[in-house]
Design goal:
Helix content: over 70%
Number of helices: 16
Strand content: under 5%
Number of strands: 0
Length: 306
Amino acid sequence: MKRWIPAACVAALVFAGFWLARSSSRRSAEAVAQAQLASSSVPVPQREHRLEAAALQLKEDPENIQALLESGRLHYEKGKEFYPDAINELEEAWRLGALDPMTFYYLGVMYQEEGLYSFAISQYKRFLRNKPDDLEIRLLLAKLLYQNGQYDEALTHYAWAQSHGSKDPVVRENMGLCLVALKRTDEASKIFQELSQRGSAEGKRADFYLGQIASDGLRYQEAIDLFSKALPLGNEDIGIPPAVLHAALAVDLQKLERWDSAKAEWEKALGYDPSDKKAKRQLGVVKAAIRKAERAAKRRSSRRRG
C-alpha cells in the first residue's frame, strides 16, 4: 500500500487502524466479551470455590473437558493476568473435543487482547462457523483481518454486515478503507463521496480520505480543499487528531510551494503535538524555503534599483 502523507506519518495513523475498522459499537474485543459475561459472570467468592472444585476434578482426570471449560472461563473472568491459564485450559478442552462456540469466542478475545491477531482470527472464524449471524464478532473479525493485511477478506465481512441490515456508517467507511488498501480507489471514492454528504464526523473523515486520494493522484489543490473541509469546528472530535489534519494540509501546500501557508499549518500541527519530530523537520524545510525566497526577492529588488 502506498504511503499517503509520509512527512506527517498520516498513513501510519490512518491505515494501521487508529480509528479504522471498528466494530459497529466501537468497543474493544474485551469490552464486548465483558458485556456478554455481565449477566452470567460468577461472583468472586463462588468463582474461587468453583475454580478449586475444577482443579480437584482436573487433578483426578486431566482430560475432563467440562472441568477444563469451567476453569478456563473462570480464569478468563479473573482478568488479563489469568489469560495464559484460560487460554491453555480452553485450547486443551477444544483439543479433547469441546465444541461449544463460546470456547472459540473467549479464545478469540484473549488472543486479540494479547496482540496475537492470527490466532484470534482463527478462533473468530470457528465461532462464526457456528454462529454466522453474530454481527459484533463478524465486525471484530473484519477489523483484525484488515490489521493483518487481509483486505479482501475484511471487505467481504463488512459487505456481509451491510447486506444483512447494518446501517452503521462506520461499516461503509471501513469498506471504503479496504478498497483503498486494495487500490480500488474509484470504488472507495464513491463510498466516501456518499458519506461526505452526511455532514457528521463520518462525513468529515470521508473528506479527509478523499483528500488523501486526491493527493495521491497529484491533485494537490483538490486535496487541500478537501482537507480544509475535514477540519473540525471548535472542540469537535471527528476521530482524526487535529495534528494529522493540519499536517496533511501542510504537505500539499508545500508541494504547491505555498510556503507561508504551509508554515502556518505545520505550526498548528505542532501546537497539537509538540513532540512530532517529522513535523519539526518539515517546518524547518519550509522556513528555509521562505528565507531563500526572501533573499531572491531582495536580489531582484536590488537589480531593479540598480
